[in-house]
Amino acid sequence: MLTNIRIVLVRPFHPGNIGSTARAMKTMGLTHLYLISPLDFPSDEATKMAASADDVLINATVNNNLYDALKDCTVVIASTARPRGYDLPELNPEQCAQMLLAGAQKDHKVALVFGPERMGLSNDDLQLSKYRVSIPTHPDYSSLNLAAAVQTLSYEIYKQSIIVDDNLLNQRISRELPNIENIERFYYHLEETLKGSGFIIKNHPGDVMKKMRTLFDRAEMDVNELNILRGALSSVQNRPEKD
To answer: What pLDDT sits at residue 158?
Structure first.
């Protein structure tokens, strides 16, 4: 299961945090690191901070955008301290680990996404996630270093991989979930159909699609349900116009 889990760092600023993340991952059996537009990588500082986990850095995947790193994933969870105006179901670290492991057990790719050190994930970054996870901290000082956050959640993943109830996992994986690429195609199809029907005004789209994403993400569509909806949208688009 652990080999199907990706740790994704979005626009990391400090190379030392990249190295420390690699070390945190390897201690918990995680090896797939994805970096989105890192400011400084490869870096001697990253290699130094990785210690004996430099193999994680060597095999890291670097992408220019978050979509390319996530498009084949079925479960994506964003690590963020607050929703930042984007409505995603919130998980605690234990639930996050169980959700990732449930998807990974069926040989699907899953991802845990972390934002830049200075400002965290943007609303656009969060749009590709199905859930968000927050690490409980003391209210007097809630700031966590990036690598510390990765270490905390990686530990929870490893712990749950040992003690998790197989019956619970089997319940979660009984449905075939679509990956991010297919979900994004659905949202594009939906938006184009709503524009064509006049429901969304092209020059004044408002927040309709944002609310639609929230609605369908909450429903957690499986592959069959997604295909039915795509078929319904195609039927609407192909309907002949009345004179």
So the answer is: 95
- pLDDT at position 201 over 90: no
Could you tell me which of 140, 39, 125 has the C-alpha nearest to residue 80? 125
Task: Report helix angle 223-238 to 180-197, nearest 10.
Answer: 30
Q: Residues 6 or more apart from 150 whose CB is under 8 A from it?
A: 7, 20, 21, 24, 25, 114
Which residues lie closer than 8 Å to 180 by C-beta, 6 or more apart? 67, 70, 71, 72, 73, 74, 76, 128
- Which uninterrupted H or E stretch holds 132? strand 131-133
The model's pTM: 0.83
Query: Rounded to an integer, what distance in angstroms lies between the CA atom of residue 119 and that of residue 159?
Result: 29
Query: Which domains are present in the chain?
Result: 2-172 (3.40.1280.10), 180-238 (1.10.8.590)
Six token digits for residue 121: 């994930």
